[in-house]
Amino acid sequence: MGELVVDKHVKYILSVEKRKDSFESVVLEHLRMNGAYWGLTTLDLLGKLGALDSNEVIQWIMKCQHESGGFAGNIGHDPHLLYTLSAVQVLALFDKLNVLDADKVANYISGLQNEDGSFSGDEWGEVDTRFSYLAICCLSILHRLDKMNVEKAVNYIASCKNVDGGFGCTPGGESHAGQIFCCVGALAITGSLHHVDKDLLGWWLCERQVKSGGLNGRPEKLPDVCYSWWVLSSLIMIDRVHWIDKDKLVKFILNCQDTENGGISDRPEDAVDVFHTYFGVAGLSLLEYPGLKAIDPAHALPVDVVNRIFFQKYTNISSRIHNLQNPLPTLTRRLFLPSVSGIWDALTGGNNNPREAVMAIRRGMLLFRQGDVLGSLVEFDKAIELDTRQKAYLWQRGLSLYYVDRFEEGAEQFPNRSQLYGVDEARKRFLEVGRDPRPVMREALSMFKDGGDPEKFATAFSNGQENEYFYASLYAGLYHEAQKEPEAAKVQIIAACRSPYGQRSDDYMASLAKVHCLCRNWSSD
């Protein structure tokens, strides 16, 4: 397995832009807006966005805007949701969303929503869950989700769920990895992931990995680099990415490179193109390949761009945590909205403000990751004030309460989840011993339920996968602490922090391990 040839890929992307008269450029003229998004996002992930003249790109994008507010794939072409999202994403890359009339764009998008909650891609009326994602993602970036009927959109997407856990383009349509990404991404952005059967969908997605390590989009199909994005991002959003062999997938992607001329192809030895180059690099970013910027799996933009869009007021957060002796480094991966179920349920009526509550939850999670536990509680409590329905879902608040010694309140935070959707649905959401597909979590739950030897538990997974060793060490330490054995707890939790997974991962529990050490004044360096 070779390494990512960054300089060659940058050179390839720039050469495609210059070869406007080539066959590839001519046949893709109507998709040029998408090509700009693929190429420029690739450059940004590689840390080379400055290699192109941003002013020239922005001027061209604005010339592609139609009087309706939507954007076309190129100058003089018809507008479509697909090109509109790409245009907005590219402007976000350059921090130039201010050049837009956001309401005009939002009105174009909301005007394409149908009575059943679905979206048409353009004025000609084709309906597809891809278009639901495009609309939701674009309006989210523009802070205009209130322009559409989110409740109807979510219900329509939920109606496209199949018995295998996947999603199709319309109700009853075959499950496909690309459609699954669109549906899961839309549900993640709107805080509606409770509509997903995570275990069932997780198994369907992880079964897409073939012997070569690559991923396919449907059963019995060849692997394709593009599914390194569609499948992997979906697995991350439902917290099941540990179910695939990441090392084999990295090897597959790297083997699809043209190491002489740059670019990435769908499969080894095939011709490269910008589309697969983007999805290959984006997939490697999701896999935390060294040297690449992190990408948000829901908005398909670099995480620093997403942070800038949603947390502009909080980019200089150090002022809020300057009193901490050893503040944590910023953890910049996967800051998309997690599975906070029901945020958009029953949007009308009452004094609830779901949209602002979502943002408060995002800020609270960011503050906790940075070690500002009190600050995170302020934001979580604000979310509950804005939308009282949030309290039952905010397990993150329970963790924050633990670290400010409000144990009874913290304990009350978790049982609330079992009261939702009736008894049958509640049972599905319990962390029951024996049901968790992860061996390390089954053993951890059993130990906390019936007692056990935490040292033996940690040792049993010491030679396992990186995430297993991390979780075994963390839960062994937490068990020791519950038994009032602080020195033994310290050894295990510091080991979790120092493990490869603890140092690299964006897992919320990896942040918790660091926060735990910080609150106990333990050095995890």
What does this structure look like?
The chain has 525 residues and is an all-alpha fold. It has helices at 6-18, 23-27, 32-45, 54-63, 81-93, 102-110, 129-141, 150-159, 177-189, 198-206, 227-237, 246-255, 274-286, 303-310, 354-369, 373-386, 395-402, 407-413, 422-428, 439-450, 454-460, 466-482, 486-498, 500-504, 508-519, and strands spanning 264-265, 272-273. The protein is 51% helix and 1% strand. A hairpin with a 6-residue loop joins β1 and β2 (272-273). α11 runs parallel beside α13, α17 (395-402) packs antiparallel against α18 and α20 (439-450) packs parallel to α22. The longest helix has 17 residues, at 466-482. It is globular, with a radius of gyration of 23 Å. It starts with 5 loop residues before the first helix and ends in a 6-residue tail after the last helix. Mean pLDDT is 85; it is low at 313-351 and 417-421. Its cofactor is Zn(2+). One of its GO terms (biological process) is gametophyte development. It catalyses: geranylgeranyl diphosphate + L-cysteinyl-[protein] = S-geranylgeranyl-L-cysteinyl-[protein] + diphosphate.
